[in-house]
Amino acid sequence: MHRIIACALVVCGLAACDTAGPAALGGVRYEVTGVEEGDMLKLRAGPGTGYTIQAGLPNGTVVRVKDCSRIGGTRWCEVALDGTPGMAGYVSQTYLQRV
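^ that's the sequence the OP posted. Answer follows.
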């Protein structure tokens, strides 16, 4: 759990450093929303809960959605952090709202 929190703090810090312009990132901008207080949206290595958690994304994190597809009963989206496009993975579309 401490590792997830530490990763989330790093992700949030990196997201504040917008080194790439919007045109370089591609994808449509979405904001993480609806995650319960004290929890974070898991950024996973692949589209499903069986994949490794790469980071935790708190409400308000902006991502760029590259593509979404239904896997089982969940729609998974391939995303990259808006300010740090090198940090990428998959999240459940349930917690994304277009900005």
